[in-house]
Specification:
Blueprint: E1 8-12, H1 17-28, E2 32-37, H2 40-46, E3 52-56, H3 62-71, E4 77-80, H4 90-97
Parallel strand pairs: 1-2, 1-4, 2-3
Length: 100
């Protein structure tokens, strides 16, 4: 019995790196994971793991987020890994944190 048995976790930017590692760790602990990302080919690789559903989702597109939110029946944890590495100009910083 895992520590996350029965929990539903939505993971944003799950296709690689920290997001992928988190998705696999959550599943090992018994969670059902809905893994989202914009990288279709990497996201498809996660589908082979029982307990992981995938969804192509661009978190910078409000319409996609709204549609996805309306489709979700249950949510226990939202784990957001989406972001942009490296330096950026103030306009991009505002976009990342929604502070236009």
């Amino acid at each position: 019995m895992g520590r996350l048995d029965g929990k539903v976790i939505i993971l944003m930017a799950a296709a690689q790196g920290i997001g992928e590692a988190a998705a696999l760790a959550f599943v090992r602990e018994g969670a059902k994971v809905i893994a989202t990302d914009i990288n279709v080919s990497k996201l498809q690789e996660l589908e082979k793991y029982p307990g992981i559903q995938t969804r192509v989702l661009d978190v910078t597109k409000k319409k996609q987020i709204d549609q996805f939110a309306n489709e979700v029946e249950r949510l226990d944890v939202l784990f957001n890994v989406a972001g942009s590495p490296g330096s950026c100009v103030m306009g991009h910083w505002s976009l990342i944190f929604g502070s236009k």
